[in-house]
Write a structure and sequence with these properties.
The chain has 64 residues and is mainly beta. The protein has no helices and 4 strands. It has a two-stranded antiparallel ribbon with strand order 1-2. The radius of gyration is 13 Å and the shape is elongated. 0% of the residues are buried.
């Protein structure tokens, strides 16, 4: 199922490395993980993430 508009909350991360977002889902009975590095998230900051999964191995992320 799809859940547009889902909000997730996290603690601020001021490290220079940023964070890694991990999306785990099931495709055709197999568990898949998709990862994307994101710049640090400051206090009271919002990041918008849009992703498209085309197949088990092909995906796209946009971070705003």
């Amino acid at each position: 199922p799809q859940h547009p508009g889902t909000e997730m909350f996290c603690y601020p991360d001021d490290s220079s490395d940023g964070i890694t977002l991990v999306l785990e889902c099931e495709i055709k009975g197999k568990t898949r993980c998709f990862e994307k590095n994101v710049s640090p998230i400051g206090r009271n900051e919002t990041k918008r993430v849009e992703f498209t999964i085309e197949s088990e191995d092909r995906f796209y992320w946009n971070v705003y």
